[in-house]
Amino acid sequence: MATFLQKLSDLAHGDVLAEGPALEPYCRDWAGRDLGRPLAVVRPRSTAEVCAIVKLAHDCRVTVVPSGGRTGVVRGTYADRALVISLERLKAIRRISQEANTLTVEAGLTIAEVQAVAWDHRQRFPLSFGAEGSAQIGGALSTNAGGTNALRFGTARDLCLGLEAVLPDGRLLNELSSLRKSNTGLDLKQLFIGTEGTLGIITAATLRLFPMEGPRTVVLAAVPDADAAARLLRKLSSSANHAVEAAEFMSRSFVAALSEKGGVRLPFAAPTDLLLLEIEQPSSAPDGSPSAGETVEGLLAAAFEDADVLDAVIATSEAQRKAFWAIRERAAEVAFSRHPALATDISVPTSSVAPFIDQAHAIRRAIDPASDAMAIAHLGDGNVHYTIWPASNSTDLLQRLELEIEALAVAMGGSFSAEHGIGRDKLAAMERFKDPVNLDTMRRIKTALDPHNLMNPGKVYPA
Ligand SMILES: Cc1cc2nc3c(=O)[nH]c(=O)nc-3n(C[C@H](O)[C@H](O)[C@H](O)COP(=O)(O)OP(=O)(O)OC[C@H]3O[C@@H](n4cnc5c(N)ncnc54)[C@H](O)[C@@H]3O)c2cc1C
After folding, report:
1. Which of 3, 69, 337, 371 is the most exposed, having the fewest neighbouring CB atoms within 10 Å of its CB?
2. Which residues, 6+ apart, have CB-to-CB distance to 365 below 8 Å?
3. 216-326: CATH topology
4. The CATH number of domain 338-419 is 3.30.70.2740
């Protein structure tokens, strides 16, 4: 191992963290959970350096864990005695094309940095979520991150036209195309999107950009329940006069817990279920001005009449827009402010979000009557973060609750992992719920590309 570390140090010009406090940030995740103790951490400055380091690790049979912004929630960067390759220094902007609406960047740029680059060129990169200030493009692609705008723009996969990845043996796979059409056999870039660094390390990507935003309406609505929220979203989505970008449902238990913590001004007196909507309106309606009943205000008034909305506030300033979003962005903090907390990340068909929440409450109460829960849902894409605060920290209880909630989602035609991935934490669910033929196909691909199981082992594929 001493020889490996010496060769590694030569490749990285002496810049290797192998002991001492510098290693500490790589031993725990953002929530303080154990990620093991890496053999060493290396932070290459170029794709060529990543190739050379991965080849060395391959030849010496050292396991490798790619590391991005380290905001993942399923311990995908667990790296006990493995070499951590951190992409944090791969930050070059390789190319921006305003004509083609594309941007090619290296993997270590954060989502917020990519958004800013696009903005500077009067374009927009729409991927957005609470951890965007730290999460990197490479991490977001490798987990196929979703976030709040997936309703309109899809997940990270839908925003990627091409990518460059280092294979487990150190060779470089160049799929850095910006073409919208190219049918030339397997779409190899898809092997690296959503596979959490188990098939290779993403070093750069070509991303889709979109025109600057039109005028926006941001609404915070108090709603009686998730069913009413879904009806309101359907009405808004079926109007041709605007595009709903985000529809975030927040349960009253979350709102109550947030009020208790303080630091936020809620526009409604009593805690209710909330629906946060961000809607883009074209600068001018296609066939003249929309009628009053077709505007956001008109649709909200009709929903009020139907008792689907109890009260609603439309943001009148950028400060108020930010204040509404600040409520939603505190979801992770509130979820983990109680201990123990069990976070799930399921998806169901969009029409089943409200029934899922109701049935999840019933299942949870039957298993653990003294427990409590909050639900945050990306309502438009069926993704529900149902967080349980169990009455005790018993491992058996936590496992039972988690598997029963995931089983409910699967029984409703949904997924046990919507946007966070599998990592190390969802291996039991993967074993239980993934179709055996699908799992076998995945394992065969993994073995073909990484026969020595050196690239992020112990994640995604159950043993
Ligand atoms: C407050 C908060 C809010 C969040 N909200 C959302 C949300 O709305 N939607 C959502 O989808 N996720 C969300 N997440 C989860 C997380 O931010 C995403 O999974 C994100 O995409 C991870 O990116 P990262 O750069 O931090 O990756 P990391 O955590 O560093 O890594 C995640 C996985 O990707 C692998 N990896 C990292 N970089 C590369 C690379 N260059 N090549 C290959 N593999 C790599 C790692 O090995 C690991 O398996 C949230 C997290 C937090 C803390």
Report:
1. 3
2. 371
3. Alpha-Beta Plaits (3.30.70)
4. yes
CATH topology of domain 93-211: 3.30.465
Residue-level pLDDT at 353: 97
Contact 71, 134 (CB under 8 A): yes
Nearest residue CA, atom 53 of ligand 1? 71
289 band by pLDDT with thresholds 50, 70 and 90: low
Three-class SS state of 237: helix
How many of the other CB atoms lie within 10 Å of CB of 182? Answer: 11
pLDDT greater than 60 at residue 188: yes
| Of 129, 17, 141, 132, residue with least CA distance to 79 | 17
Tens of pLDDT, residue by residue over 99-130, are 999 999 999 999 999 999 999 999 999 999 99
User: Could you tell which of 70, 91, 141, 143 is best to mutate to test the pocket of ligand 1, judged by most ligand atoms within 8 Å of the CB?
Assistant: 143
Residue 276: what are its φ and ψ, rounded to 5°? -100, 125
Rounded to the nearest angstrom, the distance between the alpha carbon of 242 and the centre of ligand 1 is: 31
Query: Range(s) for CATH 3.30.70.2740 in the chain?
Result: 338-419
Q: How far apart are CA 24 and CA 321, in angstroms?
A: 38
Contact 206, 170 (CB under 8 A): no
Which residue among 142, 189, 376 has the greatest number of ligand 1 atoms within 8 angstroms of its CB, and so is best to mutate? 142
* Tens digits of residue pLDDT in 57-77: 999 999 999 999 999 999 999
